[in-house]
Amino acid sequence: MKKNPIKALILVFACMLLVFSKNDVSASGNITQNDIVGTWTGAYQGTWNGEYFSRKITLNIQSYNSGTDAFSGIATIDDNKNGNYYFEGKVNPANNTISFEGKKWRYNPGDLGFSLFSGTFDRSAKTMSGTVRNSQITFSVRHTSTRFYETKVAAANVPAYWSGEDDGAYDGKPVRRGMKLHITSIKNGKVEGISRMLPSSKTDPYYGATGSYYVKGTYDEALGMIEIRGYKWIEYPVSENGFSGEWSFTTFKGYIDSASNKIIGSSEHGIWDMSICTAAEYNATPNYRENGTFKDKNGTYTTYAAGTADFKTSAKGLSTVTIPEYIEMYHQKYEVVSISDKAFYKNTNLREVDFSNAKVKKIGKKAFYGCKNLKTIRVNGDTLKKMSSKSFKGVKKAKVYIYAKDKKTYKKAVKAFKKSGIKKAKYKYVKH
């Protein structure tokens, strides 16, 4: 029997159509890539341990296999405030059901676990909805875009220099610190580098410390995930508070977000937040002269970015106070230039105050008001320019030693003191 060439051609063409359609359509239904891949937004809510909660969830589905109806992607919780993780799932076109579950955290600040999401897939409405852990917690998400962001960051594209901050610990409490990271090697899933520990202006200077150490860890190229931990000190930490105990290393876990050029992650004690920087920025030591507060045995100071400081309030119970020329915070010096309003207000314990070496220009209103037991005052007359009419009101029979370059300067300071509210004082010139 002679074959019909036209029929044979039609048969071949039909087979080709079947093969092509199989790549785009589910093996057991008519679900396509466009139905699954992309961005899904919604929430899950319910009662857990007797308390109601609601969390926003965004699914970034990056892949869908029409042959197995399996899909995978990244779930982000509360706009990343509660982390994000890699998940895998499956849709069943035969009965329009769906399920997915987390497999690996990229960022987990709350130390949360994974839960199984299962329910219904409505292709026409572009929704997935159901329950979490087969409980009374419900979820619902809507397909808002066929676009998705790529999580893969090739090792060759990972920047070498990073700058940011992390949470360490002191006496069991989280302490914010500055951090710089130099990735010296990243290949075959392994990462090595050097980290610098620096003070942070966001925490009390008492906890500031500087040091550096070698780090090593792992890198997951597909998910852009990095995990590192220190293992050897280069410069053992020097603490602002003189801490002489043993310093230990911490583990940092996070992921590289190519959209923001940041590492978003967590340490064992809190955050780990890094941004791309240059080699020069990595090597530079920041100037920490920011507006802040400093404390020493004499009292509290207010510091300013210009490198100056005011003596703010005295420590309680002191009978003798010496105000220094400089205070030092984060290895930065601040020149003490004034004594604030009411700094020693009604401090009846105070008997002697010495700021003869400090370059104090101004003594604020009621700075020593009511210090009735103050009997010795030592002051730098060369720098003193201004006092209030009540700066020393209530102080009587004190000896005032004025350190000055000459008698003219001394007499000018005496005149200012006599207008400050002090009574029956005795003045003495001391050559500066």
Describe the structure concisely for a colleague:
The protein has helices at 5-24, 33-36, 279-283, 407-418; strands spanning 38-48, 51-65, 70-77, 84-92, 97-107, 116-122, 127-132, 137-145, 161-170, 173-187, 190-198, 209-220, 225-239, 251-257, 262-266, 271-276, 292-295, 299-303, 308-314, 320-322, 326-329, 332-339, 352-355, 362-363, 376-380, 386-387, 399-404, 426-431.
Question: Residue share in helices?
Answer: under 10%
Order of the strands making up the biggest sheet: 1-2-3-4-5-6-7-8
Structural class: mainly beta
Domain module count: 3
Unreliable parts: 8-25
Q: Could you describe the 3D structure shown?
A:
The protein is mostly beta strands and 432 residues long. The protein has helices spanning 5-24, 33-36, 279-283, 407-418, and strands at 38-48, 51-65, 70-77, 84-92, 97-107, 116-122, 127-132, 137-145, 161-170, 173-187, 190-198, 209-220, 225-239, 251-257, 262-266, 271-276, 292-295, 299-303, 308-314, 320-322, 326-329, 332-339, 352-355, 362-363, 376-380, 386-387, 399-404, 426-431. The strands form four sheets. The chain has an eight-stranded antiparallel barrel with strand order 1-2-3-4-5-6-7-8. Strands 9-10-11-12-13-14-15-16 form an eight-stranded antiparallel beta barrel. The protein is elongated, with a radius of gyration of 34 Å.
